[in-house]
Amino acid sequence: MSHNTFGHLFRVTTWGESHGIALGCVVDGCPPGISFTEAEIQSYLDKRKPGQSKYTTQRREPDQVRVLSGVMLQEDGVTLVSTGTPISMMIENTDQRSKDYGDIARQYRPGHADYTYDVKYGIRDYRGGGRSSARETAARVAAGAIARKVVPGLVVRGALVKMGVHSIDHSRWDWAEIDNNPFFTPDAGSVDTFANYLDGIRKAGSSIGAVIEVIAENVPAGLGAPIYAKLDQDIASYLMSINAVKGVEIGDGFHAATLTGEENADEMRMGNDGNPIFLSNHAGGILGGISSGAPIVARFAVKPTSSILTPRQSIDADGKQVDIMTKGRHDPCVGIRAVPIGEAMVACAIADHYLRHRGQTGRI
Amino acid sequence: MSHNTFGHLFRVTTWGESHGIALGCVVDGCPPGISFTEAEIQSYLDKRKPGQSKYTTQRREPDQVRVLSGVMLQEDGVTLVSTGTPISMMIENTDQRSKDYGDIARQYRPGHADYTYDVKYGIRDYRGGGRSSARETAARVAAGAIARKVVPGLVVRGALVKMGVHSIDHSRWDWAEIDNNPFFTPDAGSVDTFANYLDGIRKAGSSIGAVIEVIAENVPAGLGAPIYAKLDQDIASYLMSINAVKGVEIGDGFHAATLTGEENADEMRMGNDGNPIFLSNHAGGILGGISSGAPIVARFAVKPTSSILTPRQSIDADGKQVDIMTKGRHDPCVGIRAVPIGEAMVACAIADHYLRHRGQTGRI
Amino acid sequence: MSHNTFGHLFRVTTWGESHGIALGCVVDGCPPGISFTEAEIQSYLDKRKPGQSKYTTQRREPDQVRVLSGVMLQEDGVTLVSTGTPISMMIENTDQRSKDYGDIARQYRPGHADYTYDVKYGIRDYRGGGRSSARETAARVAAGAIARKVVPGLVVRGALVKMGVHSIDHSRWDWAEIDNNPFFTPDAGSVDTFANYLDGIRKAGSSIGAVIEVIAENVPAGLGAPIYAKLDQDIASYLMSINAVKGVEIGDGFHAATLTGEENADEMRMGNDGNPIFLSNHAGGILGGISSGAPIVARFAVKPTSSILTPRQSIDADGKQVDIMTKGRHDPCVGIRAVPIGEAMVACAIADHYLRHRGQTGRI
Amino acid sequence: MSHNTFGHLFRVTTWGESHGIALGCVVDGCPPGISFTEAEIQSYLDKRKPGQSKYTTQRREPDQVRVLSGVMLQEDGVTLVSTGTPISMMIENTDQRSKDYGDIARQYRPGHADYTYDVKYGIRDYRGGGRSSARETAARVAAGAIARKVVPGLVVRGALVKMGVHSIDHSRWDWAEIDNNPFFTPDAGSVDTFANYLDGIRKAGSSIGAVIEVIAENVPAGLGAPIYAKLDQDIASYLMSINAVKGVEIGDGFHAATLTGEENADEMRMGNDGNPIFLSNHAGGILGGISSGAPIVARFAVKPTSSILTPRQSIDADGKQVDIMTKGRHDPCVGIRAVPIGEAMVACAIADHYLRHRGQTGRI
């Protein structure tokens, strides 16, 4: 995996900083003949867009995507069909004024990448976090919208399942609830809890972490590889590449460490339709790195943003000790907007392995 | 990342099955002038080797490594110096007899990769799990022994921190204890608990999961990249590629989801030696995908092996329903032997990023 | 090498078709701290731009490049400094009207990629050749402008050395002449010959091939690798990826097949400055895949464009036999505009190996 | 493309030096279910093997290949069937004694990679050329034997078409003659000319260059890609990676530079079987980087070996000026043994693109 590219046959390269002219991606390897519209891509971007509720940053980012290449516009004036050549997508930054960053341009905010960037590059784009800004994830979401189309029937959906110390009740899981609340929780009973909890966090100028679960259905069995291109490995890699993610699990994940072999093994039977079925899904749809046909289940943990109103001790580029308080409009729980990003990354990983499997074995 | 290769500048390709003639790896990209001995590599392999105690499988695998290329033997007759060309290492399988596998050759063991292999390849190497056997990890451990030498001063050590429901007490952590017990636990107080617990598991013909923690010290600040070559991302990817791993964490990992921004941010001060120091390490040594100079902390969860004596329901390749009991000599807790494997993978990821950072920025 | 990306540490991804909204590239892996201006990039694009003389196509393509990311604008308002993050560059297509392509949309022009595209993708972008249009090379030239800056002191220059049956006289080589004529020939004595010859070709509605020579000076010794990342191999690969190129040579190239070992070996002596010198350069600056410090010499052959006024026999997508005459504004000798493209590709290959060598060995 | 690996889905990693314990390769990405025998692989290795006639080096290298992994032995005890996992092949070096290299260990032989290796790595394997020895190509030939099987019906054959100043007569081309002479020439009328010519070269302790032509038949149309994964580009890259190769051509190659558009365009008609046919093959079977279904024609130029008996001026590692004469058993025309190597490389490139095309488009 290269530095700003991911994927082997379905390859996505993203570019752009928080305060540059634009950001975007090049999707290279999309098969020919895939139909989609800019409006479809936009619908996923809108889920990620800030300012949708008081629980996300109040910055205004229209995030309007344009498809610049790799497609032929159909006669309906709306439908785009991929030609097999690279699909370039761009989102212009409407508000790219460089405000006066003053001292902060030389200070290292605790928990941010300021210090490590400076050590690595010797030059730091202090404007809004530069390349490490979550703005970059808009490009991934656009790529994910294409990836969803590559695998026939694929459905990839995500949900917030934990915020700070509060978890949802999995037994009340209802996908229909996801879009009825500003948290992407599938548990209607958790909405008030999350709302009250996050109101407190927000008013205190603090922030909180979260856990997101992504489930992919209709993934054909056989995707992945036994060793260094395991499907779960690439899903883990893709999810861990999202800003602020500190942990990734497949299926039972860390809980599997507490299970016995009897508890953990997913027994098999023949289904009524003549296809094998699994009686449980501790494995999260992946066995030996290869999809089993059961739903793929991945979870990832997002840390709280370090942009908080409480001053923290740090240093600046000259080694001077300073106290830093990060003013500005920030998400009290960045995990919320990570839901559509996680979906996009899982979709991209599956699309890539779908094409690889087809190439390597001809068995799709 | 290719199917059986990992790394971008420090690239490792492994090959070999459980019951083949041999297994091995090619380490491509090791810088010239790195000194090591076969005995050093062997010392890491011996940690991973089965049959070291009653808690690991009783199979005999001498696992004797030979270095076949990429080095010049020095006049002492022992020291090898890398020439910059690919280092090929091989471990012969001393016991490669194909016993009579009978029915099992066509049955899908629950929790194993049998079914997914058959779906993917249409041909399955039923002999000891084929390529998905943990035998493959011996090659990784050999590669890791080279990787450790690439980064000056690098120290990578792992420990078992949880077995089933029992966790170690982190406050009693003592690296010196690691080699004093068959569990690689750094907490002397946990040895009896683990021993009694695993005796019970073993006698019941059952198995249990575990969590391993790997800590890398003396990692220069600046390794990694902001987006798709984050150091934590590659560590996650490498660890998730180990057999039976279902979850990976960096620093506080999933626990970070429960923290506030104030709790999670690692404050900075200037150390007495004029270098920055972090007052805590929630981030696990990586900020924005780039190493900070603090110790890198990674954890991974290993599921219990599915090779258990209790019969489980499954099907065979003809779709016939069968009950399967996996006889044979298996590890009751495969997590134990995963410790040196996890160390090797973390070392390889760091070595790769060390070379990439040097190439990309010239700043080491 | 991926489908629309080249390079390992200095990676270029290009996108865009002849008649799309725009085209561009993402340069990923440019080290931080490299200074350049949009005007510098533009100066190389202008060399490649059509309509510069009557000997190149009369299409109007302003080819105005914009740098969208990966840089910080300095206080002079002109200088850009790379930050180490991906540099995205875009050139808008000012004339993207889709004229009525009529029959040609379904006909396979002999010598063009029409038929092979249709076989491969089942969908063909008939507008101006789609992705196989030479328009794409503008993006490469922009990337090459950055590559030139990556290697300190690097000078990469190209010249047209043969057009059809007429070759230049190497003994009259004068770099200063290159920009004094519309053919990029370094031999002032060849200008009239080329002019008269090409006038005849052009008036006949015909076309002719050419050979271009690219010379790179101040390339540090040590770049490349012995086997599958030979510097000459990558230069050959990069040059062969240019539209219409059918052959590539390094140093004496095909002529070396006629030489004896005595004639071909470049003898070495110590120079007055204490550095080794080569008494000849049959090898073209590369020995065993690694640069020797002598100038790198590469040549490539460009076939005549198939867009000619004489009707040729062919078939259409229905298998019907047709006669095709390609009207429109085409280059009688596409090799002329290939000169800056060849320079750019050689510069990119050298920049990539410069970074790889630094990473792999730390010896720059 | 990595340093010692080539290919994207059909990936080959080679390892081993001239005087090491062994050399070999790992073929990663071979589809499952491909049948072959060790004897088949050996038959290609035997073509490349030295000592077959007085025209090749008199060194003895049994070059016996062993397949170590990635296959299941069938009941006939001979047939191997690929399982989809990496195929490791090894050839032991039977004569690996390190003779006394004396002064030569520090001298730079003109035309060899001695100097560039030393500059690059700071450590040089002076034993027989180390990694730059043509020994390495045995591993490629083994990989090529597998590649041939991946594409149904594929036939790849090579021939020597020029030696020094003597070319074959293409009108007398007869594949049946290839194995009837020690030069792999398809023109029976050229055998005596080549024999007399090379006898003179050999007796003078000199060496001479050559040109090899490789033709691949039954290549499906549609393999390759428009831009940076052109099939011709990868063939050029693979061929240029062979030791001593200085030029590569596809179809008419450099001759195309002298042609007009009318002469160069390959007209199309419908064949009697309802498939398109090309009335000529100037393009060498590749249009716009994509195979057309016509035979693929590639040529490459091999320089004369620099190991000659006439002393040449050079320097040593201390900068001292020396005269060097390379004693030993060398090939007077290394181009002869390059024939099976060229075939192998073309087969590998086609196999890789066959799998890529299948993955990317599903159209095979």
Automatic annotation (TrEMBL), chains A, B, C, D:
Q: Which UniProt keywords apply?
A: Amino-acid biosynthesis, Aromatic amino acid biosynthesis, FAD, Flavoprotein, FMN, Lyase, NADP
Question: Which residues are listed for NADP(+) binding in this entry?
Answer: 48, 54
Q: Per the entry, which co-factors are needed?
A: FMNH2
Q: What is its EC number?
A: 4.2.3.5
Positions binding FMN in this chain are: 131-133, 243-244, 288, 303-307, 329
The record's annotation in InterPro entries points to:
Chorismate_synth (IPR000453), Chorismate_synth_AroC_sf (IPR035904), Chorismate_synthase_CS (IPR020541)
- Broadest EC class assigned to this enzyme: lyase
Cofactor details (free text)? Reduced FMN (FMNH(2)).
**Which pathway does it serve?**
Metabolic intermediate biosynthesis; chorismate biosynthesis; chorismate from D-erythrose 4-phosphate and phosphoenolpyruvate: step 7/7
Q: Which GO terms describe its molecular function?
A: chorismate synthase activity
Q: Which reaction does it catalyse?
A: 5-O-(1-carboxyvinyl)-3-phosphoshikimate = chorismate + phosphate
What family is reported? Belongs to the chorismate synthase family.
Quaternary structure (record): Homotetramer.
Q: What does this protein do?
A: This reaction introduces a second double bond into the aromatic ring system.
Q: What is this protein's name?
A: Chorismate synthase
Q: What is the species listed in this Swiss-Prot or TrEMBL entry?
A: Phyllobacterium ifriqiyense
What are the leading ranks of the lineage? Bacteria, Pseudomonadati, Pseudomonadota, Alphaproteobacteria, Hyphomicrobiales
Q: Which gene encodes it?
A: aroC
